[in-house]
Design goal:
alpha/beta, D-Maltodextrin-Binding Protein, domain 2, 10-stranded mixed sheet, disordered N terminus, 19 helices, two-stranded antiparallel sheet, single chain, 424 residues, 2 domains
């Protein structure tokens, strides 16, 4: 075969290869694939509106990126991320994260991707930036926050001449007044364990100040210290008084929502993620407002001490190092006004996003006054002691339980898992 003929054949096969490449789907011709693990399905459920807008909008604006978004649910996401981080295998490029020390433990283990330079110019609240920053390095973004506060049935309060309480004393008087009218003062959902925590966090803060938990978690103080015990005893006093109904441990979180929606409960101390539902005319015909948790006169905590955390955040893992551009584009779109405006209820940390309801606007107003934000304890503590914490708090809802003893037992576990309190 002559050189000329060989050259012609080579040119022919090259042309065929190039033509085939043009006819193949973009993904097969070098399209970057980005795997993201989230919680919500991007479907038509109103509660999933942001996830749907994020996925569909990102795909439309980034046709050169193949987005593989996997919805795992809340517990499914936590469990899978935990397993993959521990084994250092099977990690996605991006995963939904609440930030804080749990994310920080993954960063310390070398599992996350440092995006400090790439994300430094993203416009957001300082709280959002700090939530996704660990030891000076930023690993992701936090478009939405959730804070705990007091949802108040304003219609019931108006009908019975009650004012929204701003102190613990006023809070107790309102509870007594509601109970006298045959209305359950407080909805909770203690059957599901974790709903007990929000009010307990506030009470510990009101007795001991914003550093009470931080010191215990840093092993500078004990989890059965004075503020923790006094908070549990006051909480239990309210249980004994009937403020949570006759059988609080039989009330699930969904039951608590129904009590508020039907006007059978006057207040609900929980997260601002309920703003969308409590604003929905399809869910309730009651007029509900959102207010700061009361202060304790003489206590160390302040009204500006807020319990809350990232509600939706995203962090990048080390496996995405080779596709950083795609990761950054996803993070920026997750923080865009376009995507965030689809969310029906959460507090947004992105400037320019209008609050979707009066309730969210009220919650955002409480958040705007915050001078200190304490992350959810069961998210901020190591997994080895977070679930046992919620178990220990069940004792609060048992009128005859010794809450001081339960906290002492919990402290023993923390000592075993996290070490003893450091001597000064």
């Amino acid at each position: 075969m002559t050189r000329k003929r060989i050259s012609l054949l080579a040119s022919f096969f090259l042309l065929v290869a190039l033509t085939a490449g043009l006819l193949l789907p973009i993904s097969a011709a070098g399209k970057v694939k980005l795997t993201v693990w989230g919680i919500d399905l991007p479907d038509d459920d109103p509660a999933h509106a942001y996830a749907k807008a994020l996925v569909n909008g990102f795909k439309a604006k980034n046709p050169d990126i193949e987005l593989d978004y996997v919805a795992l649910g809340n517990d499914g996401l936590k469990d899978k991320v935990k397993v993959c981080m521990a084994s250092n295998s099977g990690l996605p490029d991006i995963f939904q994260s609440w930030g804080g020390s749990v994310m920080g433990s993954y960063a310390d283990a070398g599992r996350l991707l440092d995006l400090t330079k790439e994300l430094k110019d993203i416009k957001c609240s300082e709280a959002a930036r700090q939530a996704m920053t660990w030891k000076g390095k930023t690993y992701g973004v936090a478009p939405f926050f959730a804070i705990a506060g007091v949802f108040v049935n304003e219609g019931l309060f108006k009908a019975h001449g009650l004012k929204v309480p701003t102190t613990i004393d006023e809070f107790e008087k309102v509870c007594e007044a509601l109970k006298a009218k045959g209305i359950q003062p407080l909805a909770c959902g203690a059957k599901d364990k974790w709903p007990v925590l929000a009010m307990y966090m506030y009470l510990v803060d009101r007795f001991g100040g914003i550093n009470a938990f931080a010191d215990a978690a840093a092993r500078k103080a004990r989890f059965d210290g004075e503020a923790f015990v006094k908070a549990a005893q006051l909480y239990q006093k309210w249980v004994k008084a009937g403020y949570f109904g006759s059988k609080p441990l039989g009330e699930a979180y969904g039951d608590a929502q129904v009590l508020m929606a039907t006007g059978k409960a006057g207040m609900h101390v929980t997260g601002s993620w309920m703003c969308a539902q409590y604003s929905s005319k399809e869910f309730t015909d009651q007029t509900i407002g959102f207010y700061a948790f009361p202060v304790l006169p003489g206590g160390k905590g302040k009204e500006t001490d807020i319990m809350g955390m990232t509600d939706i955040g995203y962090a990048a893992t080390r496996v995405a190092a080779g596709k950083k551009d795609a990761v950054v584009r996803f993070m920026k779109y997750a923080m865009s006004v376009e995507a965030c405006s689809a969310e029906p209820g959460r507090i947004c940390s992105v400037p320019g996003v209008k609050a979707p309801s009066r309730l969210t606007e009220m919650a955002a107003g409480v958040f705007a006054k915050a001078k200190a934000v304490q992350f959810w304890w069961d998210q901020d503590l190591p997994a080895s002691v977070s679930s046992p914490l919620n178990d220990a708090l069940q004792n609060i809802m048992m009128p005859e339980a010794d809450v001081a003893k339960a906290l002492a037992q919990y402290e023993e576990l923390v000592t075993e898992m996290m070490g003893p309190v450091k001597k000064k």
